[in-house]
Design brief:
By secondary structure, this protein is α/β, with parallel strands linked by helices. Helices cover 44% and strands 13% of the residues. The chain contains 13 helices and nine strands. The strands form two sheets. A five-stranded parallel β-sheet has the order 7-6-5-8-9. Helix 1 crosses helix 5. The longest helix has 19 residues. The radius of gyration is 19 Å and the shape is globular.
Length: 328
């Protein structure tokens, strides 16, 4: 196995396809051990800290359960739980926490923040989400695809909706690395960053991956193994963008017709939470303002047998555990 010890996990661009596959294999191994009730407290007595500037259900729970399974003590610092960036610089925070903890997770805003933590902490730093990248989510997604389809290479993943931010970016990077067929299906203004596309095209030339950018959802999803989507308004964006997003992205909503156009092999994935009904305060608020009962995916698709979103959510914990186990 590659030497992951003391390495940061900040973005998939930092890892080779072989290394990503090794982390997926370790994830599957640790998942099998957990299912069989086999303890794997390989980091007994170590301590990690979770720095959250953006709240989360899956990321927090995945890191806390994974840490406990590995025998570690976990400290959670929420949005108001530290002085980082307020009274204390990122650099100083990194150097303080690195003296007390064996590993640091960061979930928040700019990628440069987690990169700076990684530069100065002296211990492994893990990216739990930034505006630009969400690498632990992609590992969970790829483990899920591997479980359902047997392998990653050549599998077609279509991302529908706003592909400009962390999920569209990270899925494009991951698919390029693993020799997959990635399609960003969106209005042109919602395509990923041009510089990142160029970087991924160069990677794809080496791995045999295909990168495609298509504004026509009917054409884009044909033959897809996975249709993937995410919320149309990201955490931290102002509420006043909902109106324009709904108008521009409704044609890219994942519907039963879209799934049928892809074919019976197609599975639906979403990193969650999903606005598939009006049973949340935001969902009801959007319904009252704009009259839409769902946004990026219909309830029919979300609750269908083709939906593997809860396999995917569970796999956040197994893949995060593998990242921590390998880097510590």
């Amino acid at each position: 196995m590659s030497n992951f010890k003391n390495r940061n996990f900040l973005k998939l661009l930092d890892f080779t396809p072989a290394e990503i596959q090794e982390l997926l294999d370790l994830s599957a191994e640790l998942k099998a051990q957990k299912k069989a009730g086999i303890p794997h407290r390989m980091h007994e007595g170590k301590n990690i800290v979770l720095l959250f500037e953006k709240d989360s259900t899956r990321t927090r729970c995945a890191f806390e359960v994974a840490g406990a399974d590995l025998g570690m003590s976990v400290t959670y610092l929420g949005p108001s739980g530290s002085q980082m960036g307020k009274k204390e610089t990122i650099k100083d925070t990194a150097r303080v926490l690195g003296r007390m903890y064996d590993g640091i997770e960061y979930r928040g805003f700019a990628q440069e923040i987690v990169e700076e933590l990684g530069k100065y902490a002296g211990v492994p730093v893990w990216n739990g989400l930034t505006n630009e990248f969400h690498p632990t989510q992609i590992l969970a997604d790829f483990l899920t695809i591997q479980e359902h389809f047997g392998e990653l290479k050549g599998k077609k993943l279509v991302y529908c909706g706003d592909a400009r931010f962390n999920m569209g970016d990270s899925l494009m990077v991951g698919c390029a690395k693993m020799g997959m067929h990635f399609v960003a299906c969106a209005p042109e203004k919602y395509f990923p960053n041009a510089d990142l596309i160029a970087t991924c095209q160069a990677i794809a030339a080496e791995t045999g991956a295909t990168l495609e950018f298509n504004t026509d959802p009917v054409e884009a999803v044909k033959g897809a193994h996975v249709i993937y989507t995410d919320v149309w308004v990201s955490m931290g964006e102002p509420d006043n963008v909902w109106e324009s997003r709904i108008a521009e992205l409704t044609p890219y909503r994942v519907t039963s017709q879209m799934m049928a156009n892809a074919g019976p092999q197609c599975r639906f994935m979403h990193c969650l939470p999903a606005f598939h009904d009006v049973n949340t305060t935001i969902g009801m608020d959007i319904y009252k303002k704009f009259g839409v009962e769902c946004m990026e995916v219909t309830d029919e698709v979300f609750e269908s047998e083709a939906s593997i979103v809860f396999d995917e959510a569970e796999n956040r914990m197994h893949t995060i555990k593998a990242v921590m186990a390998a880097t510590l």
